[in-house]
Automatic annotation (TrEMBL):
One Pfam family this sequence matches: Penicillinase_R
Keywords: DNA-binding, Transcription, Transcription regulation
Family, as annotated: Belongs to the BlaI transcriptional regulatory family.
Protein name, per record: Transcriptional regulator
UniProt-listed SUPFAM superfamilies: Winged helix' DNA-binding domain
Cited InterPro entries: BlaI_family (IPR005650), WH-like_DNA-bd_sf (IPR036388), WH_DNA-bd_sf (IPR036390)
Length: 125
């Protein structure tokens, strides 16, 4: 199941900061996500159930981290939008995202490869 806009916002926090506890996520939330701590924990657990993040114990504290790399997550979302919604059949250049502060040059190359890979029959995109 693809991540929602809210889940993507939280994944972005992880991609920028690395693994975090629920408290650290709560402290790093963007202003538009002014949640109670219990809501943050609920969203994190739902994301874990969806396979978007993983949880491990560090010195008795739950620490969350992305379960997939950002290129895979972003590539699947972009491909779904461009191919499925906009019905673009031409090559999809990742150069359109070259101004991104979130993606390195290597990640842009990997994203372009992923965007233009042939879909495997039977895989849901």
């Amino acid at each position: 199941m693809p991540p929602s806009d809210t889940e993507l916002a939280l994944l972005k926090l992880f991609w920028q900061s690395g693994p975090m506890s629920a408290r650290e996520v709560q402290d790093a939330l963007p202003a538009e996500l002014d949640w109670a701590a219990s809501t943050t924990r609920t969203v994190l657990e739902r994301m874990r159930a969806k396979g978007l993040i993983s949880r491990r114990s560090v010195h008795g504290m739950a620490v969350y981290a992305p379960a997939q790399d950002k290129v895979s997550v972003l590539g699947a979302a972009l491909k779904r939008m461009m191919r499925g919604v906009l019905e673009i059949d031409a090559a999809l250049p990742a150069a359109a995202f070259s101004g991104s502060k979130l993606l390195s040059e290597d990640e842009l190359k990997a994203l372009e490869t992923l965007l233009n890979a042939q879909d495997v029959p039977g895989e849901g995109q």
